Amino acid sequence: MEKEPGQHKTSAEAPGEAEHDEVIEAGASLEYFKALREKAGESGISNVQRADFKTAVALDEMKKPDQRMGLKQLYALWCEKGNAKWLNPSKELGRLRDICLLYMGNVSTLRPLVQILLKLTNHGVSPHAFLHYVVLPRMGDDFDWRQWHLRHFGALSIIADMVIEIKKHPPFDKEILGSSSYPLARDIVIIKYFARPLCSLSEKQLGITEYQKAYIDLWRGFYLDNSLHIYFLKRNILPVLYRYAAKLEFNQLIQILANVPTIENAFRSFYPDTNGPVDENEMSLHLYHRDFLLSIAQREQRKFTTFHFTQELKAYVNIIASLLNARSGIYLCNFFAKIMRQKKDPIIAEALNRLINLIEDDGGMFVYQWHAERMIRLPKSHMEIFLNDVLAGRGLHPDYPRIHHLFNHRNDEVKREHLRGVAESLGIWDETLQNAYDRRDFSERTVLTHYMARNTEAAEIIQKAKHDICEGHD
Predict the structure, then answer these.
(1) For the chain, what is the mean pLDDT?
(2) CA distance 150 to 172
(3) Would you say residue 8 has pLDDT above 80?
(4) H or E segment at 176?
(5) Least confident piece of the model among 7-21, 170-184, 240-254
(6) Max CA-CA distance within the chain?
(7) 122 half-sphere exposure, CB direction, 13 A CA radius
(8) Which of residues 54 and 361 earns the better pLDDT score?
(9) Residue 14: its pLDDT value, please?
(10) Other C-beta atoms within 10 Å of 45: how many?
């Protein structure tokens, strides 16, 4: 069982490490590497990965003390704390070492970076993953090694501290994340999803405590146990954050991600993985075409700036969050995503986002489709007038064919009272349902969703019944 951070001893504190140093200095390194090989075997590290790293350490130790990177201590800790999924970090460090050598530098310049890797390794985070997804994207193309300390090492140290902090909290305190049908290694999720978007931020921005806390709290709100949500993140959010990380501000990252936990909660409630993974191709929850670079190129041809990408993506996230809470659910998402893929216009995206929040949700798809199609045919200068008309009409445009609004259905109130009685008899009537009742946003789906959230066993049966009906097995 893995020990708590802080209970670990670093390799410098580990018993016998001083003797290993003396052995190395005496030239008898065989016993040192043999002892570490046994540690690596206990940790489950691959012999191939260990052998390659060991070679890099031996070469580093052959240099004069003031010309070494200091890999020996990292190797010892890597052997002790690693697992079967950890890869050899020396290959990634080799790219930075080559820059130093090519431009007449000293590889000892990398010692502060190795110290950062030691800190991460001691807390059970793969140094290879951090190098591959954070360090190299940030400084792999910076050939001015004399400025590395000022430009990069301080920022990387802050990112490492944030990684260590998020690892203490659920769901990141487990080795394997994701769902049963979509398992994910924790190290990859923390580094690739959480840390990678931060890799290009300046030390000054990263040092803002308020932003650090907001970003960590955001990710603490994730469960990462739903296949459809993971698919949504990988297809829509992360690619943009990766590509434009160097141009985004810290607060912009937080704004883009702000509504994503809401989307995850909706996916988990309405589309759990209990009956196997959802077919992502049917859902089509992607703002960008499968050829992501083509989508980006098309937008850049339209003079998109980083602000436009951020505005469009924020609007899309908000649209999906709103639609998943509408009674037509996820089946409207593809309709709006298709419009946004065709228009590629952040102003239209924001107008659609506002429209969805104004429309009266009558339980059908037609009301959303009618208003959206009518609005996007208008010049952009007239869309504000259209939205004001919908607002004045209490969620419906004056031209909307509202046949069912011509009659006052006396049965509506009877139905509401009946549903309230059902909820009370099930023992689930509470403040949430009372608020929905008062807002007149009270339907069979409201009661059923609330019941499923309160009764896990029944939720599985109901979800399976819904799945069977959709598949034609009813």
Answers:
(1) 82
(2) 31
(3) no
(4) strand 176-179
(5) 7-21
(6) 96
(7) 20
(8) 54
(9) 38
(10) 24
- Kindly provide the b/e burial profile for residues 275-311, where b requires at least 16 CB atoms within 10 angstroms of the residue's own CB: eebbebeebebbbbeeebeebbeebeeeebeeebbbb
Map residue 113 onto helix, strand or coil.
helix
Q: Which two tokens stand for residue 179?
A: 């769902």
Angle, alpha carbons 433-437-442 (nearest 5°)? 85
CA atoms within 13 A on the CB side of 188: 11
Tell which residue, 42, 116, 119, has the closest CA to residue 84. 42
pLDDT digits (tens, 9 = 90+) for 441-454: 677 878 888 888 88
Task: Name beta bridge partners: 179.
Answer: 182
Residue 383 vs residues 352, 371, 376: alpha-carbon distances, Å: 10, 11, 8
What are 264's two structure tokens?
């995850």
User: What are 177's strand-pairing partners?
Assistant: 184
Distance separating alpha carbons of residues 265 and 261, to the nearest angstrom = 6
3-state secondary structure 208-260: CHHHHHHHHHHHHCCCCCCHHHHHHHHHHHHHHHHHCCCCCCHHHHHHHHCCH
Task: Give the H or E element holding residue 185.
Answer: strand 182-185
Closest CA to 10 of 114, 130, 149, 131: 114
pLDDT for position 288: 75
- Exposure b/e, 318-334, CB count within 10 A at least 16 = b: bbbbbbbbbebebebbe
Tell the burial category of 229 from Cβ atoms under 10 Å away from its Cβ (0-12, 13-18, 19+).
buried
> For the residues 182-209, what does the mean pLDDT come to?
91
Beta bridge partners of 182: 179
List, for residues 205-227, the tens digit of each pLDDT value. 999 999 999 999 999 988 888 88
- Residue 71: pLDDT above 80? yes
Rounded to 5°, angle at Cα 260 from 454 and 430: 25
Residue 10 pLDDT: 38
In the prediction, which pLDDT does 28 show?
37
Task: For residue 184, give the DSSP letter.
Answer: E
Higher per-residue confidence, 80 vs 404: 80
pLDDT confidence bin for 259, thresholds 50/70/90:
confident
Torsion 150-153-159-162 (CA) sign: negative
